[in-house]
Amino acid sequence: NSRTNFSDSVRFHSVLSIDGDTIYIGAFEGLLYALQKNGKEKWHFKTEGNILDSTPAIASDGTLYVGTMMNDREHGVLYAISKDGRKIFSVDVPGMIESCELRNSP
């Protein structure tokens, strides 16, 4: 019933993504949050690594894509997450993922 209260240790570096009544934001500590517009948490998803500057991208079917940077800064993980907070897939990638952009393919 109340808003989500984040501790002072939670650091947000990504930009908000909004889809209908849900706000998505990634925290440096590797948590992706889904919040209602009133600030109440719907769910959160724990990733491997840190969500640095990777703004969650939202596909037309509601799938979220977010990337992480591992502590070694030499690789990251790209996640596809359902709109109810379940992992669809993840894939290791070389380098860190600093943003996700969805484009229509021809």
What do these coordinates show?
The protein has 106 residues and is an all-beta fold. The chain is globular and about 35 Å long. Strand 7 and strand 8 (87-94) form a beta hairpin. The protein is built from no helices and 8 strands. The model has no long low-confidence stretch (mean pLDDT 76). 0% of the residues lie in helices and 39% in strands. The strands form 2 sheets. A 4-stranded antiparallel β-sheet has the order 1-2-3-4, with no helix packed on it. Strands 5-6-7-8 form a 4-stranded antiparallel β-sheet, with no helix packed on it.
Classification by helices and strands: mainly beta
Sheet with the most strands, sense and barrel status:
4 strands, antiparallel
Q: What is the beta-strand fraction?
A: 35-45%
Q: In whole angstroms, how far apart are the ends? A: 45 Å
Average pLDDT score: 76
Number of helices: 0
Q: Could you estimate the helical fraction of the residues in percent?
A: under 10%
Low-pLDDT residue intervals, each spanning 5 or more residues: none
Number of strands: 8
- Give the neighbour order of strands across the main sheet: 1-2-3-4
- Helix-strand string: EEEEEEEE
Radius of gyration: 13 Å
The gross shape turns out to be globular
Question: What attributes does this structure have?
Answer:
106 residues, 4-stranded antiparallel sheet, 8 strands, globular, mainly beta
Give me the secondary-structure topology.
Layout: E1 17-19, E2 22-26, E3 31-36, E4 41-46, E5 57-58, E6 64-67, E7 75-81, E8 87-94
Antiparallel strand pairs: 1-2, 2-3, 3-4, 5-6, 6-7, 7-8
